[in-house]
Amino acid sequence: MKEINRWLWAVFGIIFSFSAAMILIGGSFSSNSFYDQGDICEIVDMDLEMEGTNLLYLNRSDAFFTITEDTAVKGFHFYENEWNYLLFQISDLSVPNLPVLITYLNTDWTVTAEQKITLNNGWNIIEPAKKNFISVCMVFQGCTGEKLRIRSAMARTMLSKFSLKKFAGFTGVFLLVYCIISVIVVYYSRKCRKHKRRSGHWWIDFYLNILELIYSRLQQLPVIGMTEKDRQRLRILCILAEILCSAALINADRMKSWYYISMGSQIFFLLTLSVLMVRPVKKKIRWNTKLCYIWGLLCISMCISDFIVGKVFTCVGYVFLFVFGVFFYCWMQMENPDQLLKETGIALQISFVLIVLFCVLCRPATEGIRYAGCFINPNPFGRYLISVFVAVFTQIDYQVQKGIITWRRAVLYGLEIDLLFYLIWKSQCRGAMLGLALLILFMFIRLVKMRVSATVIHEYLRILAISSVCIFPVKYITDWLLYHIPYFLGIQVHWKKDALYALDNHLFCNPFAEQVYASASRIIETLNRRSLDSMSSGRVTYWKAYLRNMNLWGHEFRCQVNGGSHSAHNMFLDTAYRYGVVAAGIYIVFWGAFLKEVWRKLSCKNSYAFMAAGCVISYVGMALVDTLEQPWVYLAWTLAYMSAGYYLFQTDTVKENDRLYEEKIFHQ
């Protein structure tokens, strides 16, 4: 508890000191936006803005070019607004200054104004001759042979007031004041604590009593009379239905208008699982006070934010408190909580078989385009595959630790891993690749920490060898199936807003994917770029926009970036923007505390604990660079928060449940 308090004090102090400093520098003095810079349209990828063949590329990554003709044109496209300033960052200019003619175009693509300027190295700030425009062209006349690099181009309604010196000074002052206040509060709280009984946990006991009351009512349902095997089958079917339902809802709508339908269906599945986990006899369980404390604070802060600011993705805090609370309580009433993790893994693998069959029969692959599988977008497909990877790793880990893995199982697991690797690479989902890398690293560290025997290492190496030998046959066979079977059968399936559509019976084209996504080798190409924004596919621009627009209590939907509504592609920034910095600090502490619990339980043997740990680890890895913190939309989101319940209870309680379960199996 003391550790969580220290985390909270430190994170809150840093966040609010930064925020207060931003308010003073930006001059907004408003709770709606901490750093007010007005509207900004920033050209993200300079490569895409080159027009014509009269500019010769020397280095595509930073728009470094040589002017090769007497009249050369470089265009920049902005969304329509009344812009007060144009900013161009120039470097490597071959002459001290370069005369340029700026032309302004309107929505009809007609020139509305012209302006002569001179470009210099560094930032060039221009007050446009025409404030309302949609495109700007640099016209180079008589500059053949000159060289320059355009590092950045943007339009602004107001100039930035940010100063690093002022920011550091204000932040230091606020941190100092915060530390002084913290010391005084801690001093007097310790004095008062000597004369009062231990407090601060009454609300946890009250919450637990409510859950016990709900559980006692659920024990009166007829499902209690079912055998445990029947309930296991029903739980697997329920989890499988949840997986397939979430996939269908993503394809049916782009998350906004059907949010309540998606939320309602997920709540239904969670409550159904809760009922199927109810036992005739109730046992006493103990919560992990630290994690329960931070869980409750996060839920309450989200509820307060929802109450103050209406949102599109709403009611998450309320569902966490009441639905997830019941689900977690029923889960820990099971004889062995690992059983639900095992059933989740089985359901994931069954769904994987069904989805692969569906893809082979109905979802053709297109050369040079990222593969979206059964989804309308490749990213959800990659995130789903990572969840299946967690299930496969869990099965392998459990069977190897138990010493029950056979050659037949080793071959099947090796082939499954190869297929998952191939499909993830085909989707080219950055978040999925990062999550997979973290999973493999976590698996390796876990084996080292457990100090496994030579026999266990031999079994892992056997599966690795099988996977290495079969990787190319699996790749070529799957390639052939995806490129031929759907065309041969003619039963291709596509949805509204899908990138895949038919021009005729033989030719399939993905214009949406070609415009939005690069080729399948895009990750290798972007690693050669010097620009962090280019390497991250423009994510840095989104992150800066979200940081500028954070406030105290959150916003309705998403931030406006470059004229459109875009996700933050980072779960911490997305949560901070939607729920405000009040919830952001608690959210950071929340995931930090759960990651610490995962680290503490690395050495769990002979259990399915890797399923919960893998869901948390992979989710944090994917959500750092992907759009995942959008409730009831993605399977990885649901699995991560479900797995959090595995760590919300005292360690000795879980160990005792495992011990009793092992003894029962032994006697049987």
Write structural notes for this entry.
- There is one protein chain.
- The protein has 21 helices and 14 strands.
- Mean pLDDT is 78; it is low at 45-62, 502-530 and 664-668.
- 56% of the residues lie in helices and 12% in strands.
- It is an alpha+beta fold and 668 residues long.
- The chain has helices at residues 2-26, 164-193, 202-218, 228-252, 259-276, 289-308, 316-332, 338-362, 378-402, 407-427, 430-450, 454-489, 511-516, 522-527, 532-535, 539-548, 571-579, 581-600, 609-623, 635-644, 651-667; strands at 40-42, 55-59, 64-67, 71-82, 85-91, 98-105, 111-119, 122-126, 132-141, 147-156, 501-502, 508-509, 559-561, 564-566.
Features:
six-stranded antiparallel β-sheet, 21 helices, alpha+beta, 56% helix, globular
Number of helices: 21
**Molecular shape:** globular
Portion of residues in beta strands equals: 5-15%
> Spans of 5+ residues with little confidence (pLDDT < 50)?
45-62, 502-530, 664-668
Q: What Rg do the Cα atoms give?
A: 28 Å
Tell me the span between the first and last alpha carbons: 41 Å
The beta-strand count equals 14
Coarse structural class: alpha+beta
Main sheet: strands, sense, barrel = 6 strands, antiparallel
> Mean pLDDT, as a whole number?
78
Task: Provide the helix percentage.
Answer: 55-70%
Write the layout of secondary structure elements.
Blueprint: H1 2-26, E1 40-42, E2 55-59, E3 64-67, E4 71-82, E5 85-91, E6 98-105, E7 111-119, E8 122-126, E9 132-141, E10 147-156, H2 164-193, H3 202-218, H4 228-252, H5 259-276, H6 289-308, H7 316-332, H8 338-362, H9 378-402, H10 407-427, H11 430-450, H12 454-489, E11 501-502, E12 508-509, H13 511-516, H14 522-527, H15 532-535, H16 539-548, E13 559-561, E14 564-566, H17 571-579, H18 581-600, H19 609-623, H20 635-644, H21 651-667
Antiparallel strand pairs: 1-10, 2-3, 3-10, 4-9, 5-8, 5-10, 6-7, 6-9, 11-12, 13-14
Helix pairs in contact: 1-2, 1-18, 3-7, 4-5, 4-8, 5-7, 6-7, 6-18, 8-9, 8-12, 9-10, 9-11, 9-19, 10-12, 11-19, 17-18, 18-19, 19-20
